[in-house]
Amino acid sequence: MTKMSGNPLALLPRPNRAGKKLMNHRTTFLEKQLFHHNSGNRCLLRRKVFSLGLVGALAALEVISAFAPILSAQTGQPLATTKTPAATPAATSVLSHDLSGVWMQYPDGNVPGVPGMNAVDDRTRPPLTPWGKAKFDAAKPLVGPRAVPGVENNPELRCDPDGPPKLLNLPNPFEIVQIPGRLLMFFELGHIWRTVWTDGRPLPKDPDPTYLGYSVGRWEGDTLVVDTIGFNDKLWDDSFGNPRSGATHLTERYRRLNHDTLELQIIIDDPKAYTKPWVSPPKLHKLEPAWEIAEWFCVLDEDNAYDEVVRKPAGVAPTPK
Q: Rounded to 5 degrees, what angle do the CA atoms 115, 96, 175 make?
C-alpha cells in the first residue's frame, strides 16, 4: 500500500476568465504540477497556468515564483481528520434531499494544509489480486513515493478524461444540480458533466464500458446512494496507480449534515483488482455559494510544453559544482 509522501507543495489561487484572482482561500491542484528536487526528498507542486490574458498570466507567474516549498514529514500514521459537524435536526429535515451547490473538500488531506487526495483513502486499501498487482507495478504515478519525474505514465499525460472514483478524490470543486429524474455533477477539472439517474431505473445488465460508467441513485432516508458500473480499465482509482477494472461496482453515499456540510463515502468493489471491497472513511465537503465552476480543459500542446519545461527536467540530477 502506498502512502502520501512528505512533498512540499505550492498552491496558486485560480484566476477567473478576466485574469482577476478569485478568493484568496481558493486553491486548485493538478497532479502533473508535482516534481521532485534532487536535493533531499523535496517536491514542488506548481499549478499549471492556462491562457489568462497578458495581465493575468504575468500576475500568475509572479505568484508562482514567490511561493516557497512547504515541507511535511510523513510518519505513516493516520492523520487527524476533520471533525464531523453535528447535523441540525431542523436544517436536516429541510435540506437532506437537497444536495445542490458548489462543494469543495475540507483541507484534511494526507499532506497537512493541502485539500484532499483521501476521499479514496490509500491507507484502507485492501490487498491486490495478481491482476491488480501487475497493473499497479506497471503504473508510474506523478505523485507519491513511487513517482520518478520524467518516466510517469499517468493517463492524465495523454489528456484522457478523469472519471470516478479518482475524479471525486482530487481537490477540485464540483457542482451538483438536481432536476426531476436526474442529478448532474459538474466537475471543474476537465469540465466534465456526469449524469446520475434518479428516476427509479435499475443498473443496465451489460453496459458499454466508459470513462464515467453508468450511474443510478436512490434515497435511503437522508442518504443518496449512487451505484455505478460499466467502467473501462483505462484509468486509475486514485493518483498513486491503484488500478480500476471493468468489474468495478462503485458505491457513493452522500449525506448533507447541515446547510454548509456534505459528507461523501466511497466504496469500491472490484474483485478483479482487490481481494475485498475498498471502504474509505467519509470525506467532508464545504458549500461554497460564491464560487463558480471555472473552465479547465486538458490541452495537449500545453501539457507537452509543460512536460518539456518542467516535468522532465525535474528528473535530471543537477550538475555538480
A: 45
Rounded distance, CA 172 to CA 47, Å?
A: 12
Taking alpha carbons only, the member of 231, 235, 230, 224 closest to residue 185 is 224
CA distance 303 to 305: 5
Taking the C-alpha atoms of residue 209 and residue 200, their distance in angstroms, rounded to an integer, is: 22
Contacts of 9 (CB under 8 A, 6+ apart): 34, 43, 44, 45, 69, 70, 111, 114
In eight-state DSSP terms, residue 80 is: P
Which set of grid coordinates corresponds to residue 180? 426531476
254 or 89, greater pLDDT: 254
Q: Which three cell numbers stand for residue 94?
A: 429541510
Distance CA 94, CA 276 (A): 37
| DSSP per-residue string spanning 165-179 | THHHHSS--EEEEEE
Sequential DSSP letters for 246-275: TT-EEEEEEEEEETTEEEEEEEEE-TTTBS
* The amino acid at 13: P
Amino acid, res. 249: H
Give residues with Cβ within 8 angstroms of 93, minimum separation 6. none
pTM here? Answer: 0.71
Give 145-199 pLDDT, tens digit per residue.
Answer: 888 887 889 888 888 899 999 999 988 999 999 999 999 999 999 999 999 999 9
Asked if 296 and 186 count as a contact pair (C-beta separation under 8 A), the reply is no
Give the pLDDT band of residue 94 (cuts 50, 70, 90): low
Tell me the Ramachandran region of residue 294: left when phi exceeds 0, alpha when psi lies from -120 to 50, beta otherwise: beta
Alpha carbon distance 26, 292 (integer Å): 11
- Total residue count of the chain as it appears in this document: 321
